[in-house]
């Protein structure tokens, strides 16, 4: 079972930011567990929860709130929503590896506002000027698409010219400007002890620029029952061959 979070995909209203927080989404996941059980006419006491990148954030938040409902976790590209993780990708860090793409990301923002890129983008992505909003949504989305794979997939950049980019950029920026609506910075790692009885698998690209492997490593040290697989020839994307292969192995293992 997959779901489109509020404001994204087929969820309505599209690109909506109201009543759209991490904890709203965590409750949506729990409602789905109950709803699926009703459809199947059975009580699903526990289930395996899967999430990659932002999905790993939600899966961790859900498992830490409802550990009794999680049979296992399968995660990819760990993102714990800490300030330093957001700064690495949207302020300074990944910029050193993709300088040409970084210039395009900077371009819609005046130099006087570039000391806080997330805030500058948020102002424009939620502002009244539709042309500015569209331009910023495209630039934000292209930055992430270009950096997501070990080898740049130019064909995927077409998504930045579609409605996808509006929801993608606005919702991401909405969460980041609000520090993920977490109760404090670093909450997901600090409360990882709640996962102590839950088995899990983390699949992480060695050259993941969006969500660097250091976060996955820190999580592993706090979660004794997790197996961490670092894929030596992969970046961030779930579509990279080594990541797909290991994720399939993980899901098959939990099925058995």
Helix content: 40-55%
* Biggest sheet, spatial arrangement of strands: 1-2-3-4
Q: Return the CATH architecture of the largest domain.
A: 3-Layer(aba) Sandwich
Average residue pLDDT:
96
Q: State Rg.
A: 18 Å
Class derived from helix and strand content: alpha/beta
- At CATH level 3, the topology of the largest domain is Rossmann fold
Keywords summarizing the entry:
10% strand, 46% helix, 256 residues, alpha/beta, 4-stranded parallel β-sheet, globular, Rossmann fold
Q: How would you explain this protein's 3D organization?
A:
Helix content is 46%, strand content 10%. By secondary structure, it is α/β, with parallel strands linked by helices. The chain has a four-stranded parallel sheet with strand order 1-2-3-4, with helices on both faces. The model has no long low-confidence stretch (mean pLDDT 96).
Topology, element by element:
Elements: H1 22-40, E1 47-52, H2 54-65, E2 70-76, H3 83-90, H4 99-106, H5 117-125, H6 130-147, H7 164-177, H8 187-190, E3 200-205, H9 213-222, E4 226-231, H10 241-255
Parallel strand pairs: 1-2, 2-3, 3-4
Helix pairs in contact: 1-2, 4-6, 5-7, 6-7
Q: What is this entry, summarized?
A:
The chain is α/β, with parallel strands linked by helices and 256 residues long.
